[in-house]
Design goal:
This protein is of the alpha+beta class. It has 18 helices and 17 strands.
């Protein structure tokens, strides 16, 4: 019998929990009727737990804090489904407490605090918590974790979790109709039971119920299943036809905005994580918009989209997506159309929101918009919102320069799965830094100092960084600044102004001579506003 948890106990728990969850996976899958009757909760919990165990397995015999940290990160990276994502947040809460300095706390106090932190974190991660779910079981276990010894505390927590699980059909009508208890809660009770067994050193023997019987508060964690009413549970499926999941590199502030956006787009929204890495899960009809929301606030990766109607990952190509683009010059227009994009608006003047909305309405299926400047991006987002309200599937890549649109188009694969293609294009655009060389129209104060009308301005990410009288010198300085942060490809897009081609050639010759590690591409853009556009990937 243990009086505190250590690394060895943590490993024993992980191994035993994996084995027990594996044994009960099929039963838990069969009881999965909420929020969507897709029969995979047990599998998702098992895969999530396996990811955590694998992350901690390679560690040497170290302290519990290191094992807990590795396990929590592994579950975050490997979380599957809404139940897996919630489990990852529960484990993260446990790990946060276990890695904190004890500060004189006893083993009992540490474990009770960990259970509390895990439950609170899970509830906070779910946009609209529902009683009768895994969250209810987690909170009940934390509330019931009382006693004077560690064995008493974990045993009481497991018992409280089982009792809460038995009551879930009273809280969710869909569970009562199907004759089952909550699947996610069942999996959590398995983990709590195993924790109690590791601490006490004893495994209680419980009678396994037959089909159609619900466990009592003293009964097993394994859910009873009544096969006949199962079909009725389909009515519980929310409005989202797809499950969208991705990992996201983003700040805490950005994720707060993401939660609000996704809460409008779908349901079963869960966002867990921290320290710059998040796991995002949502059920939605608007796949492209859900992915676009992640692109706008950070870098989504490891994307998975599953259609509930067939339960298969959405990895096969759907109807080709329509690419709509804006262009500021004939050369850029030719490159974009050559890559398969349709131009919106007329060359020589800014595009309007009405033109964008008309173009979106003319698309039969899904559409992706590639703006070429910040004003066009704002208009495209407004048009996309209007089109989305009409039931159209539209994504707007946050491209603020033609070079970012070109980078996105370069990796576009028309026959690839739509969601993966969208993330690929967005990642290419986000990885492209942009700059420009233009001429000042009036005397003005810039971030690089005063400039006179007619002087040459060098810009990086729309911010003036160079003011001078020699265009090649300013252009080369901008290119050097941009390459200083790293990059393998420099794209130079020359404009319509006299001498623009010579300017691009001068920068190209110098960079090729001095930076043999950088590939240089020169494009005839024909844009009027900038003598030279620069992009670094």
């Amino acid at each position: 019998m243990l009086d505190h948890l250590d690394a060895r106990a943590g490993r024993r728990w992980a191994v035993a929990a994996l084995g027990r969850l594996s044994d009960q996976r099929a039963d838990i899958d069969r009881s999965n009727v909420y929020p969507v009757a897709d029969g995979d909760t047990g599998t998702n919990l098992l895969l999530t737990l396996e990811a955590g165990a694998a992350a901690a397995e390679g560690l040497a015999q170290v302290d519990l804090a290191e094992v807990a940290t590795a396990f929590a990160r592994g579950t975050l990276l490997g979380a599957r489904g809404s139940s897996g994502v919630i489990l990852a947040q529960i484990v993260r809460g446990w790990a946060e407490v276990l890695t904190e300095p004890a500060g004189g706390r006893t083993g009992v106090q540490v474990v009770t605090a960990a259970l509390r932190r895990g439950a609170e974190g899970a509830v906070a991660a779910v946009a609209r918590p529902v009683e009768g779910t895994m969250l209810t079981v987690a909170r009940a276990a934390a509330d019931g974790a009382v006693g004077t010894t560690l064995a008493e505390v974990v045993t009481a927590a497991a018992a409280a979790g089982r009792a809460a699980l038995a009551r879930t059909p009273e809280q969710l009508e869909v569970l009562a109709a199907a004759g089952v208890v909550d699947a996610g809660g069942s999996g959590l009770v398995v983990l709590l039971d195993v924790l109690a067994e590791v601490v006490t050193g004893a495994r209680p023997v419980r009678r396994r119920p037959g089909p159609g019987r619900r466990p009592s508060s003293a009964g097993p964690a394994t859910p009873a299943v009544s096969r006949a009413p199962r079909a009725a549970a389909a009515d519980a499926e929310g409005p989202g036809a797809y499950e969208v999941m991705y990992l996201l590199d983003a700040t805490t502030e950005a994720v707060a905005a993401l939660r609000s956006r996704l809460d409008v787009l779908g349901d079963s929204l869960v966002v867990v994580g921290g320290d710059g890495l998040w796991n995002v899960h949502v059920h939605t009809d608007h796949v492209a918009a859900a992915i676009e929301a992640g692109i706008e606030v950070g870098r989504p990766h490891r994307l998975a989209v599953t259609r509930f109607s067939d339960g298969e990952p959405r990895g096969v190509p759907g109807p080709p997506v329509a690419l709509l683009a804006t262009a500021s010059g004939p050369g850029l227009a030719a490159v974009l159309t050559g890559g398969g994009a349709r131009l919106v608006g007329r060359l020589g003047r800014p595009v309007t929101a009405a033109e964008l909305l008309t173009a979106l309405r003319a698309v039969a299926g899904a559409a992706v918009v590639l703006p070429d400047a910040a004003p066009a991006l704002a208009l495209a987002q407004a048009a996309a919102a209007a089109a989305g309200a009409e039931g159209r599937e539209v994504a707007v890549l946050p491209t603020r320069s033609p070079v970012q649109a070109l980078a996105a188009l370069a990796v576009h694969e028309p026959l690839a799965a739509r969601a993966q293609d969208l993330v690929r294009m967005a990642s290419a655009a986000a990885a492209t830094r942009y700059g420009a060389v233009t001429t000042a129209d009036v005397d003005a104060l810039t971030s690089a100092g005063w400039c006179r009308a007619g002087q040459v301005l060098g810009l990086v990410e729309d911010d003036v960084v160079e003011v001078g009288d020699d265009a090649p010198e300013v252009a080369l300085s901008v290119a050097t600044r941009m390459l200083a942060a790293g990059g393998e490809l420099l794209t130079l897009v020359w404009g319509a102004a006299p001498g623009s081609r010579d300017l691009a050639d001068a920068v190209s010759v110098t960079v090729r001579r001095e930076r043999r590690d950088v590939e240089v591409s020169v494009v005839d853009g024909g844009q009027a506003a900038h003598a030279l556009l620069l992009g670094v990937e």
